[in-house]
Write a structure and sequence with these properties.
This protein is an alpha/beta fold and about 500 residues long. The protein contains 22 helices and eight strands.
Length: about 500
């Protein structure tokens, strides 16, 4: 008995999922197949997710028109197309991908959820685990960097995915039928380029480059070398080689301390690089001017070759962001004046166009202040915090590497601008005062302190309002107060 080929597609809003389904059904009809399709709108905490379902079946002379399904059933999907890793993992978790039948074609890319972006620390889900979930549940998984290939070809992601589907031979539709379906729609030239690129194959997901022999991080523990190499690259781009050299010198100093292990140095390599490159309005201007943004913006605008893409950047810097560019003494006086006037919550609405001469010049002038950055209040405050944090890591290391690692990881808490920055720093200080200081003066055993630091950090990250952190710190305080003499003796 002949069976249809069942295709499930998961795409986010604006990614052209509907166009992709239209191409597949048009091509199926062009190839003489029966076809049916359904779309189910949903919500993905980003721009909305839509599930599309297609069934195609060969038509035999004299056969009645088949009744094809309108909804995907778990365990009965032959081909899955996913334009984003988390959406693919969700379909895998729901049972649509199975080891006995499903071919999964997935773009190795992320569109972060509201929860990921709003969490106190680095709330991003682990991409490798999402990809592994797809691989472990599918018969075969083709996970590739289709988005990078789309940027290279100036095509839309959906055209790349269609080419990958044609290359898989998983559906009884010849490539020429897909080409004919593309020609019948809009932006045929760029979409055909994308289709041919997907048909030829996409690159594997980019991996962090291994450090080259002879580079600075080579003398660090193996666990920290790749992170340190990326840190050097980031800091050189952010500021200059001198800052990258200071970064490596700090890592080497900690690596040489008694009791320091590779895991501790790796944690420091990650978080110190992030703190030394804490973003300010100068960095924002640098990033807005990057040449690498242009292909992505053109792809998002679905621009055809030769089209003019006009970009407007909507920015709303507040007093703290603007005045933090001044020297510390002057900036503090200005901030006190603004605070007395009740203007701290105000912001300046700026619409800047880097694609027009005046807007480009404004951003270029702001980015050119990179050399001024070490003289600013923002830099001074960040350096003071880093010095305090590193001093606490060093003191904690005398009580053991596990405690020192948790102090190093506490840097995840500090993030954001203005009010968010102040709130997260306050939470960090509360945790250090309530957990680390009792450990340093002998009122809390190091192993319990390490676990308490972890629990307090997680509570602060998950609950920006602070209620969960209040409860966690209260429980820790009760534990310390319950038997201080016994704890000190342990």
């Amino acid at each position: 008995m002949r069976q249809p080929t069942r295709i499930l597609i998961a795409a986010l809003g604006g990614e052209g999922g509907g166009v992709l389904v239209d191409w597949i059904t048009r091509a199926a009809i062009e190839a003489g197949l029966h076809a049916t399709r359904t779309s189910i709108p949903g919500v993905a905490q980003r721009t909305g997710a839509t599930t599309y379902y297609v069934e195609v079946m060969p038509a035999a002379p004299g056969d009645p028109v088949p009744v094809l399904g309108l909804n995907a059933a778990p365990g009965r999907v032959d081909v899955f197309l996913g334009t984003e890793l988390l959406e693919a993992a969700r379909r895998a978790e729901a049972g649509f991908l199975t080891r006995d039948r499903t071919l999964a074609i997935v773009a190795h890319r992320r569109a972060y959820t509201v929860t990921e972006k709003s969490e106190g620390g680095d709330g991003r889900l682990d991409e490798s685990r999402l990809a592994q979930a797809v691989r472990e549940t599918a018969r075969e998984a083709l996970i590739a960097d289709y988005e990078a290939l789309a940027r290279q070809t100036g095509a839309a992601l959906n055209a790349l995915m269609l080419g990958a589907l044609a290359a898989s031979n998983a559906v009884p539709i010849p490539p020429d039928a897909f080409r004919a379906a593309i020609r019948a729609g809009k932006a045929a030239d760029s979409n055909l380029r994308g289709f041919e690129a997907g048909l030829a194959g996409a690159p594997e997901p980019a991996q962090p480059p291994a450090p080259r022999a002879g580079t600075g991080p080579d003398d660090l523990p193996e666990e920290a070398r790749a992170l340190a190499a990326e840190g050097v690259k980031r800091l050189t781009d952010f500021q200059d080689a001198a800052l990258a050299g200071h970064y490596l010198a700090t890592l080497r100093r900690f690596a040489a301390l008694p009791g320091a292990d590779g895991a501790l140095v790796a944690a420091l390599a990650r978080h110190l690089a992030l703190r030394l490159s804490s973003e300010d309005v100068i960095r924002v201007a640098q990033l807005k001017l990057r040449d690498a943004r242009r292909p992505r913006l053109a792809a998002e605008a679905k621009a055809r070759p030769g089209d003019i893409v006009h970009v407007v950047e909507f920015m709303k810097p507040g007093p703290a962001e603007v005045l933090s560019l001044l020297p510390p003494s002057l900036a503090r006086r200005a901030l006190r004046f603004v605070e007395r006037r009740g203007w701290m919550e105000k912001s300046i609405a700026l619409n800047v166009s880097p694609t027009r001469p005046l807007g480009f010049l404004r951003l270029r002038l702001l980015a050119a202040l990179r050399g001024w950055r070490p003289r600013t209040l923002k830099h001074a405050e960040e350096q003071a915090w880093i010095a305090e944090w590193l001093a606490l890591v060093e003191r904690a290391l005398r009580l053991g590497a596990p405690l020192a690692r948790e102090v190093a990881e506490s840097a995840r808490l500090v993030k954001g601008y203005a009010a968010t920055d102040a709130r997260t720093r306050q939470a960090w200080r509360r945790i250090m005062d309530a957990v680390l200081l009792p450990a340093l003066d002998g009122r809390l055993p190091p192993d319990l302190a390490a676990d308490a630091l972890l629990q307090a950090r997680l509570a602060a990250q998950k609950d920006p309002e602070g209620d969960a952190l209040d409860r966690t710190l209260a429980a820790i305080a009760a534990r310390i107060a319950s038997s201080p003499q016994r704890l000190a003796a342990e």
